[in-house]
Each structure stands twice: as C-alpha cells, then as structure tokens.
Amino acid sequence: MLSFVLVCLVDHFCAYLVAYGKDGEKLTVGDYVLFATYIIQLYVPLNWFGHTIDRFRKILSIWENMFELMKEEQEVIDAPDAPDLVCSRGGIDFSNVTFGYSPEKTILKNVTFNVSPGKTIAIVGPSGKSLRILIY
After folding, report:
1. What are the extents of the domains in the chain?
2. Which cellular compartments is it found in (predicted)?
3. What is the pTM of this model?
C-alpha cells in the first residue's frame, strides 16, 4: 500500500513538472510517459518480490511449528498387546474396538463393523454422542 502511495506521489510530481515546471525543470510529455513506464516496470517486479518474501516467511513459520510438533511426545499410546495395523485388502475392519477419553468414561464399547473396499457407510446417532471420533 505504501509503495502504491509513493508511486502516485512521484507520478503527480512529474505531472506537475510537465504542466507547471520552469524552463530548466520542465518535462515534456514524452519524458513523463517514459518515466511513468519505467516506474510501472519497476513497481510490478518489486511488488511481486515483496509478496514472495512474505510467503517465504510464512512458510518458514509453518515449518518451525511443524518441527516443534514433531518433537512433542505422543499422548495416545497403543496398548502393549495391540496388533499392528494392516492394510492389505483396502477395507476397514473394526473388531471389538473400545474407546474413551478417560478410563472412567468409555464412549465406544466393543464396536465391530466392516467396510468393504469402495463402499461407503453412514454412522448415525443422537447429536453430541461422540460419533465424530469414528471419522478421525
């Protein structure tokens, strides 16, 4: 925004010199057009460069946050006897899955279902009953 204002001020100053300049300081219309063309040719790449630097700075900030997140310890740890997750057929099998945010408050108890490859299922229930955890 500031660079746009500066370009406008310089442009108006040059227009003033064309219209009201003294003999030694007066610009011709050709000089004005040439100067305005140079300003535009410089403004566009410099503006693009500024946006590129801003994007790069944002990306570096995102990378920094990502690496900090990777250093965090996992809060959810599999049970010692949990089987490995195997994706061989492309389907999803839930077999006796129990889940809760704390041991005292179990939300899912022994849930079992199968989703065949290429099929879609819908899980319905009352609002606020933690059905969303199956989507994650």
Report:
1. 2-71, 92-134
2. Membrane
3. 0.39
